[in-house]
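Re: Re: token formats

Sure, here are both.
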Amino acid sequence: MTVYKAPVRDINFVINELLDFNAHYQTIPAGAEATPDMVEAITNEAAKFAEEVLSPLNQIGDEQGCQWNDGEVTTPEGFKEAYKLWVEGGWQGLSHPVEYGGQGLPMSMGLIKSELVGTANWSWGMYPGLSLGAMNTLYVHGTEEQKQLYLSKLCEGTWTGTMCLTEAHCGSDLGQMRSKAEPQEDGSYRITGTKIFISAGEHDFAENIIHIVLARTPGAPEGTKGISLFIVPKFNTTEDGTITDRNGVRCGSIEHKMGIHGNATCVINFDSATGYMLGQENEGLNAMFTFMNTARIGTAIQGLAASELAYQNALPYALDRYSMRSLSGVKNPDKAGDAIIHHPDVRRMLLTARAFAEGGRAMIYDAAKYSDRMVQAETQADRDEAENELGFLTPILKAFLTETGLESASNAMQVFGGHGFIKEHGMEQIYRDARIATMYEGTTGIQAMDLIGRKVVLDGFKLYGGFCKKLYKFGFKNLISGKRRCYSAKLIGYTLSWNWHTIKMVARASRNRDAVGAASYDFLMYSGYLSMAYYWAMMAEVAASKLAEGGDDKAFYEAKLETAEFYFSRLLPRAKGHAGCMNSSTDSVMAMTLDRFTTR
């Protein structure tokens, strides 16, 4: 069974010493209440809830799973009761406006909460997590009447939300979507169609579930230009939120999955269900991106969570498992062998998970500041700027951190050896739960194409150039006056290489369009390793400065520097391999004819 201890000290390091959330909060209206004392209190209470309520349910959820019976879903033992405590604590509306029942704190505060909840019990955390996406979409695109009715109930937590995109025949290609929305005289619509892979689509937590659904109106253009977005409640209600009758929404089945057993992944059938348009007709996909980007940042947290939980549970085993003698001499003479943490390869695996967890935390928390700016922007121009900057980072965060989280989970199983493959220690659950993260909300390949295609090439390199400028500015500044100049030098060198390989790749793509697709995965992974290097360089500078000042927590800062050295020496060099692949011949991928794929 896995255990979880909230990494409050490291969270405080990131938000206080590295990113200075307090100064950031003074620049946004919602930050007035987010005083250091308030942030500390909320973080500690969220940590307590995660450790004491959710973590003990993690294995139970995996073993029992969800049960489907005639369209109704029962969640694992203790899940429903934990959600009741969640609602009573007012956690759901933490970062949403007071006028709709929220507490009005910055979005970044909600992200800290999401990390703690997700690491303790990812399956449970998906239920309120999906609601957050519905809440954000309603807040940005809903009418005032829709916000008063639906957003208020979602902030309370008495209702929950989902997003319904995928259909069996089209997967991520939403242009092929067939669900229909027929307009009615009263302004509502009749929604008909079937959606699959709907996380938290049916459960016993709340009195109503609000589905955010993509569908086509009659005569809508073909492809993605003809998609609209709709609010479709499980139960119909009056204008004041009183539940009346059952809507035409039923859970046809739940999936039997590799992992996240405690979360119901549903087939949802809409049979002339009453729905209400959210946003403008035929602009549903743009509106849904509000939800999808929320979900993608949430998925990035799953990658961080997998690295953190894997490290926390593999470390005690490595300290207490005695096997073979250390190559550099006996370390535990009173034992038949030395603790395996003295073996270099075991340390490599542990430090890899630690570096990805701590580096990922810094990456995600910095991105959360863009979310704050986007929501709190006073002008549309400021909102667009923050949204675009966050949009550039989103595919890197989602894809890179889920890939590294899966690697961390795999390494943690390896630390346990054969014991990692059996259920007793819970390590294989971390891997199984993490495996989906690289797939949903767009696979790694889809994120890679989004990054290089939409966020770099079609954007005219503006966002890409701005990000590079930030790396160069930090690198050259600290190359002159920093305490860890070697890291700044590496950051500059890898950024220059990134620029050069990107230019070459785009030039090749002008002659062969497949060049972008063939290089996109490696471009994304290089981007991820480089981005994380920037944050590790920042963390090293802060840690070195703190050590120079003296004072408490010397061991914490020394460990931070040692982990930074591991990252720059052992993990960042992987980017060179991705650079080589990025600019290798496209023919190495595309030349094989289809008939030769079957010749073995």
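Second one below.
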Amino acid sequence: MQSSLPMVPQQHSPDPARAGSYAASTVELGDLKRILVRRRFWIFGTVALLTLVALLYGLFTPALYSSAAEILIDPQDLQVVTNDVNPSRISPDGGITQVESQVSVVQSTGVLMRAIAATNLTQDPEFNGQGLLSRLLGSASAEGDRSVQTLDALRRRLAVKRADKVLVLDVIVTAKSADKAALLANAIAQAYLVDQASARAKMAKDASESITARLDEQRKRVQQAENAVEAYKSANNMVMAAGNLVSDQELTEINTQLATAQSRTAALKAQVDQMRRQSGTPDATSEAMRSAVISSLRAQEATLVDQVSQLGTELGPRHPSLIAAQQQLRDTRQLIARELGRIATATETDYERALANQQALEAKVAGMKSKSLDTDQASVRLRELQRDLEALRSVYSNYLQRAQETREQINVDSTNARIISNAMPALKKSWPPLPLLLLGAIFGGLGLGTGLALIAEYSSPTVLSSAQMQSAIDAPVLGVVPAKSDTGRRWWPFGGARAAASSQKTDAVVGLALRRMFSSGQRPADWPLVPSILVTSSPGEGAQRSRVARLLANAAASRGSRVLFIDANAGGGGQKDPQPGILDVLRGEYAFEAVSHYAAGSNVAVLGRGRSKAVFQEAHGIYFAQQMLARASRSFELVVIDGGALADNLNASPLVAMADEIVLVATLNATPMRDVTTTSQAVSVMGRLPTAALLVDEAA
């Protein structure tokens, strides 16, 4: 049977490769709310499970108590002696690095073993690995293994911290008993101080022993240097006195004497020369003027001159008294002359003697200088040996002094560290913190549940947004229809527009969808078939698909259009003896006018599914479908077909081939993407592809 009517223009050509796949599920920020609401049971279940686990853990876990001891460490140690074995130098960072290194020292094996020994911790089952579980398993540890286990257990229970910008270390120990925690914290703090003092004493002892071992060697070297100096002096006949050579001292003394003699000789020669120049008036010399004898005789001479002058005036020239006075005056002058002669002779004699002494000293100095030249050559090597000797003596002296100092430092503790706060037994347990665990379980459960919900969504993606749906079917999404009506009135049966209308939002979305489907202008103006819309969905979306199909019919009818509504849903026939419908029309048994009827008070004519008693050929179905749509154009402006789930409804294939628009209905955040793909593949197998989609939002 051949159709005389043209085929429906294909707006999309089937692409089996595209129809067999869909775009990967992408989650937008606005879709997270839908995912979390839909999979809320995952989140609430995870929160409840983690909260229960945290509660059980907090109730059945043995309580632990923490105590802290505080140690103040001053980077600048006590300056007990000037040359300390451990010099105190503050680093540019104020000693923070040095104090930070003490954190590791407190946790070192040496310090902890001291604390273990002081508290006999190896006998404590809580720390020595000999608890109830070990006894039940029958395991016993040797003494060495027990010490190692105790050390490891103590390290796990120990925390050493330093707050910012302070030089105080907090030694925190956690144990099942508050008293035990305080005891261990104080023991570790005390063990640290003892360890530091012991370490410094050992360093001082090692330094002292090392220096003392070098003293004998230094002493032998000094003796060898002294023997070398003395042997060299003896070999070169070099006698020392007061640290200098005797020959050098003699030469220095004779040089001094020679200088003195030369000065005296020059002075005497000047006196002699003066006397010789003043030979006419010898009494005018400086020696005569300085002579006490001359001065006395001059005084007597002056007295006698006065006496002679007076007597000559009073007694006359021949008077005996005058003559006697004149004789005394002549004798006095003779005495002055003899004294002046004696002075001149003595001066010349002193000059000659000084000159002879000077010449003798010069001869002696010349001889000693010749001898000193030979001694100076030997003194060069002697001074070198003496310098070596002084250097060795200085080193030996420093070694000896340092050995004494380090020996004294063994018993001196220069560490500037002290316990400023002893640990006290805690009043509250530190573990398990039940409120914190519950809070962490709640927030952790929310995070984990959210992650599981997103993983579940990714493993089985659903339709999340219009963009995702459009990418999956390569067709536009005409709108999002709210799942519920604001008025609470039913959309079925096709009553009046008022009774059938949904909310204003739903009415607006459906109306715009109708306009968009037929505003492309792809239908020719003289096209003989009535405009038709086939609505399909996945098998699980039957209720929403039927609702959307009826909303489309009602929306068109409410705007004055006459609508033919065809219910081709495979699951719609529930009657025992169904009335004739679309299947009968497609088999050519009935005309659609004979089996359709108008709904009361509506512009919508309804054509049911009919009887599926016989299977018809697809070519016959397409022919009768063309005939039906051509004849329907005389009475109707729109045909809306509820095609059911096309993957299960092959009888709707002729309607798929003849429909203008194939609208795929899906529910946001509920319809799996695999169902969308399956439906799209079914449409593709029937020779078409979906031309549009309408989404239903259950959250709106």
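The chain has 22 helices and 14 strands. The first strand starts at residue 65 and ends at 73.
- S.
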